[in-house]
Amino acid sequence: MIEIRDLRKTFYRGTPDEIQLFRGFSMKIEKGDFVTLVGSNGAGKSTLLNLIAGSLMPDSGEILVEGRDVARMPEHKRSAFISRVFQNPSLGTSPSLTIEENLSLALNKGRPFGLGRAKDRRRRERFRERLAALGLGLENKLDVKVGVLSGGQRQALALLMATEVPPSLLLLDEHTAALDPNTAGVIMEMTRRVVEEHRITTLMVTHNMKNALDYGNRLVMLHRGSIVVDLRDEQKRGLTIAQLMDLFSRTSALTDQMVLAEFTQI
Ligand SMILES: Nc1ncnc2c1ncn2[C@@H]1O[C@H](COP(=O)(O)OP(=O)(O)OP(=O)(O)O)[C@@H](O)[C@H]1O
Ligand SMILES: [Mg+2]
Fold first, then answer.
1. Residues lining ligand 1, CB < 6 A?
2. How far from each other are the two terminal CA atoms of the chain, in whole angstroms?
3. Per residue in 35-69, pLDDT tens?
4. Engineering a disulfide at 202: which of 79, 84, 160, 170 sits with its beta carbon 3.0 to 4.6 angstroms away?
5. Residue 194 is part of a domain; what is its CATH number?
6. How open is the CA angle 206-31-159, to the nearest 5 degrees?
7. Is residue 165 part of a domain?
8. Domain that holds residue 207
């Protein structure tokens, strides 16, 4: 289970540009939940993921991952159990390394290197199988440098790497936004498969309202650093795109004072 308690983060404190983004933000994510996170530009979605992953430190607050407060743990340590896939396909993989080398790095995450030859062969077979399941022809390209792959192929690989060792939490930040519609569909289905297969607790940011509704068991809308909509299971399943769009436009009218008042759900 993931629990965020009373998180605070202000940018440019004490200057005219000060942005008090998170002002006592709290959220619980149950183990195995697949949460889709929506909200307008600047709502704080990526910042929330940055704070959880450790690429940003909060001013105060706790981030409990399976009972352990990781809020001040360095990012590289958190990466042993928090995986992330970004919008930009070049961020999740190393371009100068081959597919096999990239996957090996992901597999060895948090563990020492040095596997025997027999293990090497078995590992190669396993990589081949996982790649073949994508249907992108990558299983025959284990020795190809990742830098020459298309954005969609790289994103597929990034997702494989992020889940090679199933993490306690998978963070996806608009991970299909830079892909053509077909490839985005392939990556979304792969996401569903891998998340379901390992029951990975997942937080996925998207601007695609259909994806926000079609995937996951819970939908959260963020506005000015606060949760303004939080729907799960039947409530989420009953929601239409038109209703979600309506919630979106009503949300955009909410001021800081309104989201901070008792008014946490619209
Ligand atoms: N490292 C930073 N330094 C200063 N300001 C930041 C930093 N990171 C985020 N912000 C500010 O925090 C606010 C929230 O940004 P964030 O990127 O989290 O929004 P978002 O919800 O991900 O938006 P988008 O949908 O455009 O990706 C913005 O006003 C942004 O300028
Ligand atoms: Mg963002």
1. 11, 19, 21, 39, 41-47
2. 26
3. 999 999 999 999 999 999 999 999 999 999 999 99
4. 170
5. 3.40.50.300
6. 45
7. yes
8. 2-95+150-260
